[in-house]
Amino acid sequence: MSVNYNNETKTFTLTGKNLCYAFWINDLGYPEHLYFGAPIGSDDLRFTRAFGATSMAATPPGIDNVPSYNAYPSELSFFGTGDYREPAVQVVNPSGDRLCELLFDSYEVVSLKPKISGMPSLDGGETLIIHLKDRLNRFAADLYYTVYDDCSVIARRAVYKNLGASEIRLERAYSFSLALPDRSYEMLSLYGVWAKERHIDRIPLHHGVVSIDSKRTTSSATLNPFMALLRPDTSESHGEAIGVNLVYSSSYVLKAEVNPDGTTQLTGGINDFDFNWKLAPGEEFETPEAVIAYSDEGIGGMSRAFHDAYREHLINKRFVKSPRPLLINNWEATYFNFDVPKLCAIADAVNGLGIDTLVLDDGWFGKRDNDTSGLGDWVVNTEKLHGGLKAIIDHVHSLGMKFGLWFEPEMVSEDSDLFRAHPDWTIGVPDRKRCYSRHQFVLDLTRKDVRDHIVKAVSDIIENNEIDYVKWDYNRNVTESWSYCLEAERQMEFAHRYALGFYDICERIVNGHPDVFFEGCSGGGARFDPAVLYYFPQIWTSDDSDAEERTKIQYGTSVVYPLSSMSCHVSVCPNHQTNHTTPFETRAIIAHLGATGYELDSTRFTEEEKAAVKRQTEAYKKSEDLVLTGDLYRIDSPFETEFFTEAIVAKDKSKAELICYRRFSSINNEIKRVKMAGLDPQATYRLEEKGIVAKGSTFMNVGFAPDFPRHDFYALKYHFTEI
Ligand code: DGJ
After folding, report:
1. Which CATH number fits domain 636-722: 3.40.50.1370, 1.20.120.160, 3.50.50.60, 2.60.40.1180?
2. Domain 2-313 adopts which CATH fold?
3. How far is the CA of 397 from the centre of ligand 1 (A)?
4. Is the pLDDT of residue 669 over 90?
5. CB–CB of 326/355 below 8 Å?
6. Nearest Cα residue to atom 10 of ligand 1
7. Ligand 1 nearest-atom number relative to CA 599
8. Which residues pair with 298 in a beta bridge?
């Protein structure tokens, strides 16, 4: 990895693993993009400059006969002086004008990556900071670029500064602009809804803007904060893919714009819809980080770049590669209907089966026998749990198991002591009624007093009980974005301030209890983003626990996020969400493609099921290192075929697992042949289950036919060992 500046050509060249990024400071002082793609030589790239179609182009201010700002591939587009593309920044100056001309001032290269204050970001790498200043010296932008030698990503962000003597307003403050040389791209995005998160969408770009966003004050199940641009012929294993993922958990936008000159610009960051930010003299505004992955090995290569980046530079180092809790959760077993004997019995029933943690889900606190009351009252309900949490924890610990507890720290029920005492702590506009969602409201995390209360209430429970694990849920989206504590002109800062408030309580609760393992959750996977992953090494992927539907959800999620970040449980059949009945073994194989657990009433296990669980957990433990650290190769897509086929290959290629799933069996099936992926072509492997010994190249080019029985929803697992 390296950051170089060529004084003669005024070119900055950043080289990372399998990628190169270059721009130069042109004669106007404008940082003009030159290249982003596969590694190249250190040639002067200015020969690539080209100017295409223009329409009534305006020159830069005061200089005639020079191409417009609109004509240059941009590192950060700005508005009002001839550039009509989507600007990355829009500022309102004291006079009401919205002009800024951000030109090169200076640069620095730092080896210790600066943190963003109050927001998560990647660590490590080498960072270039470009200081841009407006011509009138009243406004500035710093552009951050970080490259790595162990993952094919470049991290980008911007910091905006008010250098003037009066207050200004930011109407838009995106994290980056990225110029691409042509328009031959398709957009891949991950859309969804509750229980159907991160499904795959792929559409061609067109002239104008294609955009995805969230206006929900959360990253949302609707559209993940991720967009990839693919060449039309890019497949899972071949071709160029450029992916951008925001390390951000609030309302965001990502845009791909095709311009008349045939170029494309990618930009985005905090959603400027319902946003503006007052910047006092001397103040600065930091934007969230955008992680941009490059691959010339198809969508799969892009995914592996993100996985490496997040495992090496984002997720808590203490937990990211360590064996995860293998848990049993009582939610689908009991919902709100439990007591101490029932919970102890659930733990007893899995004792000795390889399950090491009992997680007590919703309903242990306040008045909470259904979802209409109690949120916010983080006091143990001893009428329901005689002997309190201690009775369960002591029992679980006596079995040698760990204990986990559910919270929903950001929420409050209308029927709760907290709401009755502090109605103003809830988001909402005083003279209007609030929208309900799951009968609950959201606490105003923009307020420090509210955050302090949450931190104390949750920490007290964690510290006064022997809690090993916390599941942090978030079951509705914000409406009526308004805070009692923000002045009127600052109310449109709300969505970003909520994110900062969320990170603050995570910092204090999660990082304040470093020995406790925290899992993220949001009514399933409605807040599955890199910022959440920074605090929570794994996230409950979806409330849909049906193995068949999970193949799509987990396939889509893996486009960006590593397997180890996906929490996946084996549940009962008929499945509570879909009513499907799938084989127990299939449910285990699919759920074991992530951080795994069981979520069913173990007191009803037959002896045969107990034996199966023991077998399954032993198998999982044997190959957990692949889930935590291996390279993922998706082979058959459940969106396009009857199959879901994935391989996980050890980094040193010494072993691999192949998961083959077929949706429906039918009479007279066609032969299904699976070609393995990711093996060392020269090495010799044994395919354990079939006793076949062959070269990696043979398994990858010739393939073999998995032994699907005549059964719907059937999954098989094969192991390859290098010999
Ligand atoms: C939604 C979560 O996704 C579920 O797993 C469960 O924790 C419920 N909330 C509890 O209310």
Report:
1. 2.60.40.1180
2. Beta-galactosidase; Chain A, domain 5 (2.70.98)
3. 24
4. no
5. yes
6. 362
7. 5
8. none
